[in-house]
Design brief:
This protein has 466 residues and is mostly helical. It has a domain of 102 residues. Helix content is 59%, strand content 8%. Strands 1-3-2 form a three-stranded antiparallel β-sheet, with no helix packed on it. A three-stranded antiparallel β-sheet has the order 7-6-8. Strand 6 and strand 7 form a beta hairpin. Helix 18 packs antiparallel against helix 20 and helix 20 packs antiparallel against helix 21. The protein starts with a strand and ends in a 13-residue tail after the last strand. The relative contact order is 0.13. InterPro entries: ERG24_DHCR-like, Sterol_reductase_CS. It is an enzyme of class 1 (oxidoreductase). Its EC number is 1.3.1.21. It is a multi-pass membrane protein.
Length: 466
């Protein structure tokens, strides 16, 4: 593993006293209380059921979340009858999924990034990650934008020229593909769990609680890798799920065209707004290395299964809903949705850009035409070294902490509002994102309470990870 220890030389009484400070609370918990254990068990039991229920509701009940429950209560259906009507695993879907994952592995591992050499402003190639709890800085291959471009170029070439497969192939195999995604999600999670015990990439960045369920769910290894470059966290966080996000929406659009002879403006809005979000992710993949997903989450079922199943199946519910319920929005409604999505994206991107600019320039920049203000703090990594960090308090970060989350939620609401107001199902995304981002804020508060502000007091200070 390509990693370097960047040690800070400590001299004098001041530095010696800093060694007595407790290490920053990075990553997940060391100990498991009853509430955490119950929460983990709940997620393990209900998250796969939620994915199945939503997809089944669309397949069998036109995306109505209440109809399956009402039929069960009235005795018109049973769990067995629902299961029997659900498409099962198929070897054709397994071949499709295997080719898809293998192709993304090939692009990730074997095709060096050239986009950063030809696209001005794009940061790709080999980049340093953030410091791990053990004090390591890993190197990453950043080529997500290139993988996305190659994949989508081949998709459009097939749709308009080669005709190797139907553009509706993803929708037509949606439920069988779900079983394949589950197999991969559980296999990857189990492998990562076993690997942490038998051959961890870096034992100093492992956390064992002694609770089998919690460790399997939340992960033990911080950055599990196979070989020098295959990083599980970066690959599964970005590929294959997020690359597939826009392809899934394109397949939904093709199915709507096939069924009804036209594509609605709501479907176009969902495709465009979510494509902006996906492209933003890959354009800023190097920046993503410094966010909470990479900097603080260990790799377990939560990320492994979540990236394989939860993300591609529940983040694309709006497009799936519009296949079953095509909605043609009024011009005013469509304009309002577009503006909400674009303004949300502007806030999301501008807030993150301000933080990134401040960090790259070490505060030597201007934000909103002024020199930025900040709080200087220190933290101690697991190797005992003391590091310093500047926390931005200007621009959007002076208006509110994590104002980027506000923009993210505005964009999420726009996706949902594009589907009209006929059903609850497409609004699951904004409900889920609100819970997720509020929970991240709570985690951030807890983790950063150990950082000590160098302002003459030991007041806990906000963290700058997004």
């Amino acid at each position: 593993m390509e990693a370097t220890r960047r040690n800070v030389q400590q001299r004098g009484n001041k530095e010696t006293s800093e060694r007595t400070e407790p290490p920053a609370q990075w990553g997940r918990a060391w100990e498991v209380d009853w509430f955490s254990l119950i929460s983990v068990l709940g997620l393990l039991c209900f998250a796969p059921f939620i994915v199945f229920y939503f997809v089944m509701a669309c397949d069998q009940h036109q995306c109505s979340l209440s109809q399956p429950l009402l039929q069960l209560l009235r005795g018109d259906a049973s769990l067995l009858s629902i299961w029997e009507r659900t498409a099962s695993f198929s070897w054709s879907a397994a071949k499709i999924y295997s080719v898809w994952v293998a192709f993304q592995v090939f692009l990730y591992m074997c095709v060096p990034d050239v986009t950063h050499k030809v696209i001005p402003g794009y940061v790709g190639g080999v980049q340093d990650g953030a410091r791990t709890p053990a004090g390591l800085i890993n190197k990453y291959k950043i080529n997500g934008l290139q993988c996305w471009l190659i994949t989508h170029a081949l998709w459009f070439a097939n749709a308009h020229h080669f005709r190797w497969f139907s553009p509706t192939i993803i929708f037509d195999n949606w439920i069988p593909l779900m079983w394949c995604a589950n197999i991969l999600g559980y296999a990857v999670s189990t492998f990562a769990f076993t690997k942490a015990y038998l051959f961890p990439t870096n034992s100093e960045d492992c956390k064992f609680t002694g609770n089998f369920v919690y460790d399997f769910m939340m992960g033990i290894e911080f950055n599990p890798r196979v070989g020098k470059w295959f990083d599980f966290k970066l690959f599964f966080n970005g590929r294959p799920g997020i690359v597939a996000w826009t392809l899934i929406n394109l397949s939904y659009m093709a199915k709507q065209q096939e069924l009804y002879g036209h594509v609605t403006n709501s479907m176009i809005l969902v495709n465009v707004l979510q494509a902006i979000y996906v492209l933003d992710f890959f354009w800023n993949e190097a920046w993503y290395l410094k966010t909470i997903d990479i900097c603080h989450d260990h790799f377990g079922w939560y990320l492994g299964w979540g990236d394989c199943v939860w993300l591609p199946y529940l983040y694309t519910l709006q497009g799936l809903y519009l296949v079953y319920h095509p909605v043609q929005l009024s011009n005013l409604h469509a304009l309002a949705v577009l503006l909400l999505g674009l303004v949300g994206y502007y806030i999301f991107r501008s807030t993150n850009h301000q933080k990134d600019l401040f960090r790259r320039s070490n505060g030597s920049c201007t934000i909103w035409g002024r020199k930025p203000t900040f709080i200087e703090c220190s933290y101690r990594s697991g190797d005992g070294e003391v590091h310093r960090s500047k926390l931005l308090t200007s621009g959007f970060w002076g208006v509110a902490r994590h104002f980027n989350y506000t923009g993210d939620l505005m964009g999420s609401l726009a996706y949902c509002a594009a589907c009209g107001f006929g059903h609850l199902l497409p609004y699951f995304y904004i409900i889920y994102m609100t819970i997720l981002l509020v929970h991240r804020c709570v985690r951030d508060e807890h983790r950063c309470s150990s950082n000590t502000a160098k302002t003459g007091s030991a007041t806990p200070t906000p963290c700058r990870t997004g």
